[in-house]
Design goal:
The structure is a single chain. This protein has helices at about 5-10, 25-35, 55-65, 100-110, 125-130, 135-140, 145-150, 155-160, 170-185, 195-210, 245-255, 255-265, 275-280, 285-300, 305-320, 340-345, 355-360, and strands spanning about 15-20, 40-45, 70-75, 120-125, 190, 215-220, 325-330, 340, 365, 370, 380, 385-390, 395-400. It is of the alpha/beta class. The chain has three domains: about 5-220, Rossmann fold (3-Layer(aba) Sandwich), CATH 3.40.50.620; about 245-320, no CATH class; about 325-400, Structural Genomics Hypothetical 15.5 Kd Protein In mrcA-pckA Intergenic Region, Chain A. The chain has a six-stranded mixed β-sheet with strand order 1-6-5-2-3-4, with helices on both faces. The protein has a five-stranded mixed β-sheet with strand order 7-13-12-9-10, covered by helices on one side. It has a two-stranded antiparallel ribbon with strand order 8-11. Helix 11 packs antiparallel against helix 14 (about 285-300), helix 12 (about 255-265) packs parallel to helix 14 (about 285-300) and helix 16 packs across helix 17. About 40% of the residues are buried.
Length: about 400
């Protein structure tokens, strides 16, 4: 069993906030005396189909709590996802339908266990209790917080100052997130620094419902591949956990040297000192970046796939003076030509037709240099097209006439 000091060293590693001061230490001491594990909560709204490596920062912290012997609760906000958290946005965020949330939630279940121990993880949905809450109970929840306090939240304050609309339903988001901690009897809640206000609201809601308030731990936000904005699928600067190995490797090789150091510190498994080694001349920045890319890709796809992605990169982008796209011939269907989603799946740019449809919808696909969003867009028989997904996957596709 680790000592209290050893546990706190692990918990504080990489963290930004641990609030209030001394609270977690007291909880750890009491849990040891009571021979029980702390309940450590992380909530994630399934607002996009896949998790990205920015989520790894907080998931890795949960994994550390598991290694210390504590119980992790991964809460999928299928109810709050239908409200839409406006954090870091200047206007109301579009809420998702129940069907969209359910589909995204299923991918989260699959992806979190690339990092977390399934035997020490409980997965819950906040619709389990929120859909059962009646009107009177919702009014009671709303009575636990004031409008003045709610307007202290940075994004609400900015929008008020700019005269931009704030929906009444948006005030419900931090309240429901706080009530989740009541329902789960959370001892600790972990989140990104953009969730600090919501996590602290959770403390107030727990106290209002007669529970001991949770300790709050925040982790830094990971910048996207552009090096400036927070990693986000919607901003097109994300590296998805489920992205193909070669694509992920290529994206990682495109980041700046400064961002490489940050990714090494926050996402890598065994390269936190990579920046120091580069600065000391121990390793060349290009080799360092390849080592980092192989480390990160290996976490989600395995060492063999990561090594293959590295070889692919070196062969195509270092050993060649120019990139020559693969030339692929496909046979058109009975209607003449092929829909875009079928082409993407056929050439290996997507693992399934559904993934191909999603890539098109994310404006990730270009035909002859022009973005095409419609997955049903047809490539005509007899035509020759340069099909690209992102900057790293190119194919020259020729559609042949069916012999039938």
């Amino acid at each position: 069993m680790s000592t209290l000091a050893e546990q706190m060293t692990v918990v504080r590693q990489g963290a930004v906030d641990l609030l209030p001061e001394g609270e977690l230490e007291r909880k750890l001491v009491r849990a040891e005396q009571e021979k029980r594990r702390l309940r450590v909560k992380l909530g994630a709204d399934p607002s996009a189909p896949d998790l990205h490596i920015g989520h790894v920062v907080v998931l890795r912290k949960l994994a550390q709590f598991q290694e210390l012997g504590h119980q992790v609760i991964f809460l999928i906000g299928d109810f709050t996802g239908q409200i839409g958290d406006p954090t870091d946005r200047s206007e109301t965020r579009k809420a998702l339908t129940k069907e969209q949330v359910a589909a995204n939630a299923e991918t989260y279940r699959e992806q979190i266990f690339k990092i977390l121990d399934p035997d020490k993880t409980t997965v819950r949905l906040n619709s389990e209790w929120m859909e059962k809450m009646n009107g009177a109970e919702m009014v009671r929840l709303c009575a636990q917080f004031t409008v003045a306090r709610m307007l202290e939240r940075d994004d609400f304050e900015r929008r008020m100052a700019a005269g931009r609309a704030i929906g009444i339903h948006e005030f419900l988001y931090p309240l429901v997130q706080g009530y989740d901690s009541v329902a789960l009897q959370a001892d600790v809640e972990v989140g990104g620094t953009d969730q600090r206000f919501n996590l602290l609201v959770g403390r107030e809601i727990q106290k209002a419902y007669g529970q001991e308030a949770q300790a709050v731990l925040t982790m830094p936000l990971l910048e996207g591949t552009d090096g400036h904005k927070k990693m986000s699928k919607s901003l097109g600067n994300a590296i998805g956990i489920a992205d193909p190995p070669e694509e992920s490797f290529g994206k990682l090789m495109s980041i700046s040297d400064t961002l490489m150091v940050r990714y090494a510190e926050l996402v890598s498994r065994g390269l936190p000192d990579l920046g120091k080694r580069v600065a000391g001349g121990e390793i060349h920045p290009m080799e360092a970046k390849k080592a980092l890319a192989e480390d990160i890709v290996g976490q989600f796809h395995g060492g063999t796939a990561a090594a293959a992605a590295r070889r692919h990169f070196e062969q195509r982008f270092q050993e060649r003076t120019a990139y020559e796209p693969d030339e692929i011939e496909l046979v058109g269907d009975a209607d003449g030509g092929l829909p875009l989603f079928a082409v993407l799946a056929a050439v290996g740019f997507a693992k399934s037709n559904s993934e191909a449809r999603r890539l098109a919808g994310q404006r990730a696909v270009k035909i002859d240099g022009e973005a095409v969003e419609d997955p049903l867009h047809r490539l005509a028989t007899g035509g020759e097209y340069l099909v690209a997904v992102g900057r790293r996957r190119l194919a020259k596709v020729r559609i042949l006439e069916s012999s039938c």
